[in-house]
Design a protein that fits this description.
The chain is of the alpha/beta class. Helix content is about 50%, strand content about 15%. Strands 1-2-3-4-5-6-7-8 form an eight-stranded parallel barrel, surrounded by seven helices. The radius of gyration is 20 Å and the shape is globular. The mean pLDDT is about 95.
């Protein structure tokens, strides 16, 4: 599964990229607001960290033509290559924009997905990634993991080229379950990325190794 960081906090990203095998970063206006960085500052800093890794930027326009112009402007402004993904919401105008952007050779991530049908239509329109919001579905008594599983199944059954980018997590268990549902990728907050790789028994085991090794490792390095 591809792991991406869902943040625009540059200090946190530096810490994560030092050890976590991330393959990209996703952003949106809410994330930018929390980071305190404007788009130009955040994306420039993110580019320096990710190199050729993926960068997903949310479009804020609501009209089709404006979404297309916005995506093209960001790709030019930041001098992106094929690692740029325009995040387009699955509205009527969004579906139109997805097709236009794909015809223009721009990668697309379809966002704000809450149903299997929204994802299926987005991929038929050409979306490279579809991003179902797992925790937000759970919050309204729906079943986020089941939606992810249904989308993954559709991709296989219909021979689609899109991939699932599971998003909106509140717990490590949700991430575990979308990975078991064969989600292709997940975008995860820094807090949960750190929790994902930790376990108290690991800490106990490492501490015991240190204690047992005392006086036994006699080769300098």
């Amino acid at each position: 599964m591809i792991y991406m960081a869902d943040t625009a906090d540059l200090n946190e990203l530096k810490r994560l990229y030092a050890f976590f095998p991330l393959e990209g970063v996703t952003t949106n206006p809410t994330i930018l607001n929390h980071s305190g960085n404007k788009l130009s500052t955040a994306i420039t800093g993110i580019q320096e960290l990710v190199g050729s890794g993926m960068v997903h930027i949310q479009m804020i326009s609501s009209e089709t033509d404006d979404m297309v112009r916005e995506a093209k402007r960001y790709r030019t402004y930041f001098d992106f290559g094929d690692n740029f993904y325009a995040k387009i919401p699955v509205t009527e105008n969004g579906y139109r924009a997805i097709r236009i952007l794909k015809d223009a050779g721009i990668n697309v991530t379809a966002t704000a997905i809450f149903t299997q049908q929204q994802a299926l239509v987005a991929m038929k329109a050409g979306a490279d990634f579809v991003a179902p919001y797992v925790s937000r579905l759970d919050n309204i008594s729906s079943h986020g993991i089941e939606v992810v599983s249904d989308i993954v199944k559709n991709i296989s059954e219909y021979g689609l080229n899109g991939k699932v980018l599971a998003a909106s997590f509140k717990t490590v268990d949700q991430i575990y379950r979308v990975s078991k549902a064969a989600a292709h990728s997940a975008t995860i907050s820094p807090e949960l990325l750190h929790q994902l790789v930790k376990h108290p028994m690991t800490d106990i085991g490492v501490k015991q190794f240190e204690l047992d090794a005392e006086g036994l490792y006699d080769i300098e390095f």
